[in-house]
Amino acid sequence: MRRAPLLLLLPLLCLAACGECNTGKTSWSELDAASLTAAQQKQRAKALGARDALGTQLSKRLMEALGNGGAGAAIEVCRDAAPSLAEEVSKAHGVTIGRTSHKLRSPSNAAPAWAASYVASEAADGVLLAAKDGRMAALFPISLQQACLACHGEPSKFAAPVKDALAAHYPEDEATGFSRGDVRGWFWVEVPSE
Predict the structure, then answer these.
(1) 145-164: b or e for each residue (b if 16 or more CB lie within 10 Å)?
(2) Beta bridge partners of residue 30, listed in sequence order
(3) Separation of alpha carbons 112 and 169, rounded Å
(4) How far is Cα 25 from Cα 14, in angstroms, rounded to an integer?
(5) Strand 127-131 relative to strand 28-30: parallel, antiparallel, unpaired?
């Protein structure tokens, strides 16, 4: 029985000994944006470009859906179009990009391992991380806009088509109860080494 506490202390001992822990998976170190190397600045620019591209394309599709079919149609955009948009942006920018949240609507949007602790702590600021192999990872917060309240606000205020769409497509939905300006989630980006 005394092995369990020792096993719980192992990661802490590793961190104390070397400043980071590598348990067979990639270890990531947090970066200070003001101290980036020239290569890291290029990687950060690539991550920002991908984030902006996905954010713009997704926002455009959502606004079109809201205008044409209401909030119920916007749910379909997030369900059907967002993954393919992320894939297109990933290919176009030479990165891997996605969305995640601390309150998931879809389990397929779970955070990558490197982002999980930041998401769990609801980090309101962006985060840049570097791997020993030269890769960069970035986490960029997404603030809830007024239009998003129709699907992510207070459930008691949702229109019937929104309630129906959420019940049909996301029976385990947790992505409600937000207010305008809240951090709704994050874009995450992984950038290969330069």
Answers:
(1) eeebbbbbbeeeebeeebee
(2) 129
(3) 23
(4) 14
(5) antiparallel
Tens of pLDDT, residue by residue over 62-74, are 999 989 988 888 8
Compute CA 110 distance to the chain's CA centroid, rounded to the nearest angstrom. 8
Residue with tokens 């970066």: 31
Could you read off the pLDDT of 116-152 as tens digits, one per residue?
Answer: 999 999 999 999 999 999 999 999 999 999 988 999 9
Please, how many CA atoms are within 13 Å of residue 166, restricted to the half-sphere of its CB? Answer: 20
Widest CA span in the chain: 62
3-state secondary structure 162-174: HHHHHHHHCCCCC
